[in-house]
Automatic annotation (TrEMBL):
Chief place where the protein resides: endoplasmic reticulum
Protein name: 7-dehydrocholesterol reductase
Involved pathway(s): Steroid biosynthesis; cholesterol biosynthesis
Region (Disordered): 1-30
E.C. numbers: 1.3.1.21
GO aspect biological process, one term: cholesterol biosynthetic process
Signal sequence annotation: none
Native species: Seriola lalandi dorsalis
Gene Ontology MF: a single term: 7-dehydrocholesterol reductase activity
Species classification: Eukaryota, Metazoa, Chordata, Craniata, Vertebrata
Ranges that cross the membrane: 40-61, 95-117, 180-200, 265-285, 305-323, 335-354, 418-444
Length: 478
């Protein structure tokens, strides 16, 4: 389901035979992937996000900096005339050249690790898939190659972080927190710069013109992207780099900086801060351990590269995905043993569901169905689809295991983990719970986007699949 990409092609329908395989019947032409034309609702949504998303990020960070993480107090103060927008803005730390230097060194270091340090970890750690790997087929029928070295980058970066904290003392472990808002302006500059560059590049010198998609609407093209896999040279892939680095590598470093600040301010680290660090580190490490698998997910297989990914990975991800740790610097919540245990179990069960569901699909793909899932031979629906170069390709939709429970049960596990991060902060403020609200909206929207594309890609076979697995996220509910 996450292997759909954009194109318009004539498709054929497949029918099941007694052995679970399929035979071909003609089907009407259908569009595969993102729409070529933009409806008014989508256009209004895009413009709204372009205008308000940066202010949402600023508002949450400002609320912690000036209002002890209260998201309602600034509004009440504005309503009562006790403050003004100009005074709020003037109290916020501005861009600094020291923050610019820190951020430039950080991004340059991640580029260096990504481009010039080929993966060696896969040679020493059994089961890890790294090095040069094939991506999914693009709309033009191409299969790009990627250097998978994210886990190695993460390990080197964090080894240097801990070496500095305990031995070298080049900088304070609280450096990220201490420069948090000035760094935000730097991240915005990079996010808008790379998004604008990708937009212009698509018109002037695209990596592959057949993998470009122009809707005719400038705002939509800028936000959702035109090029499918913009690259500089052979190996610098915009999507893989900005999706994984620098934002996700930084995620755990940001949390460690929050932990160091809590220790500095209060003389101890709370169990809630430890839980947030541990649970989110599990998620980050899982991402890099399975980076080769990530090449087959919606971000790489579906999305074109635009502001949505460029700015989102530079700003939205590191600043809003880490709100729990930021909140705990200002409110050092010490959870009861029962509460802490419940949060830990929720997070671990959510991770188990998330990882097991994705593992089942990966196992099924790698073995082409010659495997066992939950002790049984997997059942599936086999389909055909066409790429833009006229090639005919097969795909199998799994209906066994967690994929027989719901069509996106991996998202259900993801949401359980997201709720655990928030619940670790207690129930004193709403701000830490923004993450679960956002992730619910994001993943439900992804369900709809993914299923629209799969319906276009597979035609009536997708209807057969949804009949076999009727629920999206929660069996019996949705």
């Amino acid at each position: 389901m996450n292997s759909a990409v954009a194109m318009e092609a004539t498709r054929r329908r497949t029918q099941p035979s007694p052995n679970g395989k399929t035979s071909k019947e003609e089907e009407q032409p259908a569009q595969w992937g993102r729409a070529w034309e933009v409806d008014w609702f989508s256009l209004i949504s895009v413009i709204g996000l372009l205008c308000f998303a940066p202010f949402i990020v600023f508002y949450f960070v400002m609320a912690c900096d000036q209002y002890q993480c209260s998201i309602s107090q600034p509004l009440f103060d504005l309503y009562r005339g006790e403050t003004t927008l100009l005074s709020i803005w003037s109290r916020s730390p501005s861009f600094t050249w020291s923050a610019a230097k820190i951020y430039a060194i950080w991004v340059a270091f991640q580029v260096f690790l990504y481009m010039f340090v080929p993966d060696a970890v896969h040679k020493f750690i059994p089961g890890y898939v790294g090095g040069v790997q094939d991506g999914a087929r693009t709309p033009a029928g191409l299969i790009n190659k990627y250097e998978i070295n994210g886990l190695q980058c993460w390990l080197i970066t964090h080894a240097l972080w801990f070496a500095n904290a305990h031995y070298f003392h080049w900088f304070s472990p609280t450096i990220i927190f201490d420069n948090w808002i000035p760094l935000m302006w730097c991240a915005n500059i990079l996010g808008y710069t790379v998004s604008s560059f990708a937009f212009i590049k698509a018109y002037l010198f695209p990596t592959n013109s057949e993998d470009c998609k122009f809707t005719g609407n400038m705002f939509y093209n800028y936000m959702m992207g035109i090029e499918f896999n913009p690259r500089i040279g052979k190996w610098f892939d915009f999507k893989l780099f900005f999706n994984g680095r620098p934002g996700i590598v930084a995620w755990t470093l940001i949390n460690l900086s929050y932990m160091a600040k809590q220790q500095e301010l209060y003389g101890h680290v709370t169990n809630s801060m430890i839980l947030v660090n541990v649970l989110q580190a599990i998620y980050v490490l899982d991402f890099f351990w399975n980076e080769a698998w990530y090449l087959k997910t919606i971000d790489i297989c579906h999305d074109h590269f635009g502001w949505y990914l460029g700015w989102g990975d530079c700003v939205w991800l590191p600043y809003l995905y880490t709100l729990q740790g930021l909140y705990l610097v200002y409110h050092p919540v010490q959870l009861s043993n029962g509460h802490a245990l419940a949060v830990l179990l929720l997070g671990l069960i959510g991770y188990y569901v998330f990882r097991s569901t994705n593992h089942q699909k990966d196992l099924f793909r790698r073995t082409e169905g010659s495997c066992s899932i939950w002790g049984r031979k997997p059942t599936y629906i086999e389909c055909l689809y066409h790429s833009a170069d006229g090639g005919v390709h097969r795909s199998k939709l799994l209906t066994t295991g967690f994929w027989g429970v719901a069509r996106h049960f991996n998202y259900t596990g993801d949401l359980m983990g997201s709720l655990a991060y928030c619940a670790a902060c207690g129930f004193g403020h709403i701000l830490p719970y923004f993450y679960i609200v956002y992730m619910t909206i994001l993943l439900v929207h992804r369900c709809v986007r993914d299923e629209h594309r799969c319906s276009s890609k597979y035609g009536r076979d997708w209807k057969r699949y949804t009949d076999a697995v009727p629920y999206r996220l929660i069996p019996g509910v949705f």
